[in-house]
Amino acid sequence: MMRIITGKARGVKLDTLEGLATRPTAEKVKEAIFSAIQFEIEGRRVLDLFAGSGQLALEALSRGASEAVLVDASKEAAEIIRRNAVKTKLFPSTKVIVNDYKTAIKQLSGREKFDIIFCDAPYAAKLTGDAIEKVLKGGLLSDGGIMICETDEDKTYETEGFALRKHTHYGRVFVSIYEKTVNSESEILI
Questions:
Q1: First-to-last C-alpha distance (Å) of the chain
Q2: Are 7 and 62 in contact (CB under 8 A)?
Q3: Which value, to the nearest 10 degrees, does the dihedral of the CA atoms of residues 143, 149, 154, 155 take?
Q4: Where are the alpha helices (DSSP H) in the chain?
Q5: Residue 44 class from Cβ within 10 Å (0-12 exposed, 13-18 middle, 19+ buried)?
């Protein structure tokens, strides 16, 4: 059973897709992620690239994030996200995009900036590195913003202007928290 851990929607049970199409973040992992970023959520803009049930973005909203954009390629997942957003009374702060992460990043690039980005791609697809690269090239992460990636690989991704803050594991799940360093050259506009 998935639920919102704390905040405005504390204790609300969330719906999830039936079957193996999505793999929700385990409660223990979600608690650890939010413990690590608890003082960085208030008033922030959130992007959840592989939203599934929407639990990570909704947890952030429950804890005080100002708004969240949730992306999932599945129409069924988008419907679950909307249902969960209504159930938690967080729907007014959400925007759901039904598209794959690449197209969504293209749509948002140049228009939007986010302070927190969740990247919990399907493990077998090995999309984390590509998603990080596209987020950075698209300028979606604000200076000092963080990107939290969950994978099944003990692997980190670092590039200029993007530093690893924390890398840890919970059983077979690896969580990496990256920070976009302020004034990285990729953001200089002439």
A1: 50
A2: yes
A3: -40
A4: 27-37, 55-62, 75-87, 101-108, 128-137
A5: buried
Helix, strand, coil share (%) of the chain residues, nearest 5: 35, 30, 40
Residue with tokens 């993007």: 162
Query: Which distant-in-sequence residues (6+ apart) come within 8 Å of 103 by Cβ?
Result: none
Note the pLDDT of residue 25. 82
Cα separation of 28 and 112, whole Å? 31
Tell me the C-alpha distance between 4 and 58, whole Å. Answer: 8
For residue 133, the Cα-to-chain-centroid distance in whole angstroms is: 15
Q: What is the mean pLDDT of residues 155-166?
A: 91
Sign of the Cα torsion 146, 50, 100, 12 reads: negative
**pLDDT tens for each residue of 79-138:** 999 999 999 999 999 999 999 999 999 999 999 999 999 999 999 899 999 999 999 999
- Of the candidates 55, 47, 46, 43, the one whose C-alpha atom is nearest the C-alpha of residue 5 is 55
The alpha carbon torsion through 106, 110, 115, 116 (nearest 10 deg) reads 0
